[in-house]
Automatic annotation (TrEMBL):
Taxonomic placement: Bacteria, Bacillati, Actinomycetota, Actinomycetes, Pseudonocardiales
Listed InterPro entries: FAD/NAD-bd_sf
Protein name: 2-polyprenyl-6-methoxyphenol hydroxylase-like FAD-dependent oxidoreductase
Superkingdom of the organism of origin: Bacteria
Amino acid sequence: MIGLAAAVMLARDGHAVTVLEGDTERAPATAEEAWGSWKRAGVAQFRQPHNLFARFRQVCDDELPEVAGLLEKAGCVWVDYLAAAPPTLRDRTPRPGDGDLRFVTGRRPVVEAVFAELADREPGVEVRRGTKVAAVASGASALDGVPHVTGVVTTGGETLPADLVVDATGRRTRAATWLEAVGARPLREESEDRGFVYYTRFFHGDSPPQLRGRAIMPMGSISLLTLRSDNDTWSVTVFGASADHALRALREPRVFDRLVADCPLQAHWLDGTPLGGVRPMAGILDSHRRYVVDGRPVVTGFVPVGDAWACTNPSAGRGLSVGVVHAQLLRHTVRANLGDPAALARDFHERTDAVVAPSVRNQVAADRIRIAEMTAAREGTEPPAPDPATRSLLAAAAVDPDAFRGVLEIVLCTAQSQEVFARPAVRAAVERHAGDVPPAPPGPDRARLLELLAA
């Protein structure tokens, strides 16, 4: 989907863009068909929960202004987390800028169908479905000692020349292999399986549930994620550590429902008609690939975007928002540097490192803490000490409107945590609540969890 967004952005700057899509099927015409019958074997998380968040909407408003309307037409819904402010919040008065935190979202197949339609209608974009890349082509170097990519070779043997090859193949990209074959130095890649496993059920009903508290709620060795979707649908996800073998019982719908029913703030999310059974997913890597190593590009004429550059634990729902920001950076970089491949490679790396890399680093740090907390809860050991500033911010957010909005901005990707902590009002709130413990969400402890899973 990030590849389609990038393609349309670049085409609107006058470029001829060819999108190579390995899957063969075109996007269906209706939301029901997109969810029920569209096959996207190349996207493992296609029918898992997704959120578009406020930063995604803001970028689309700037770069692809018709997207919000197209999403609404497809049945996607507007979400306002300010409406789910805790009852303990002292001041609930609306403020200027609150509208910036609203976003429109839906199920991945429905949203992707909108972007596929957008790309199909764009005059400068050609989408070739059922076409896969076997290798990249190379030519005369634009930078001494650095290979320069001049196009791609398809599995059918066709060579397609290009001024720039954009890798939007996602977290399973084969870029390292392609580039090694044309003599590129190894990418600097960091990759680790944090060990999360997800169990999700989708529901449909005439009265979609209201959010009571945070969308993601940690409860010892598990967390619950509840999301609104399009056309009166929604999802509930229970996720934990893949090493927690007791959680495998959640594959059984009755066990899944029994657990969620025992969570007071999420039980009403079961009040609908299930759309199939429980959908498990595991093996999600936190990974980050650097294409400039020791200040020197490993290749020119080739750049990654979105998950092909970096991906993290999907429970936070930031992947599409970070990806579309990355696509926006690519558009601006190409505007300035397409005629200078070496400058383009360096400039895109610098913009990426400054604007979107902090989101990846912050999420990786959060993943490490959360998996350690889950492990401690499962093994009955002492959990790691929480970050004092983060704990104080979450405690302050229960009562202070500046802290609450700051937390929302971090969640919705409209601000980095470092930026939020630097604000005088937030800093004062954090200092007032230094040492306070955020209220714990109600839900089963470890002993009760095991009872629910084994019953």
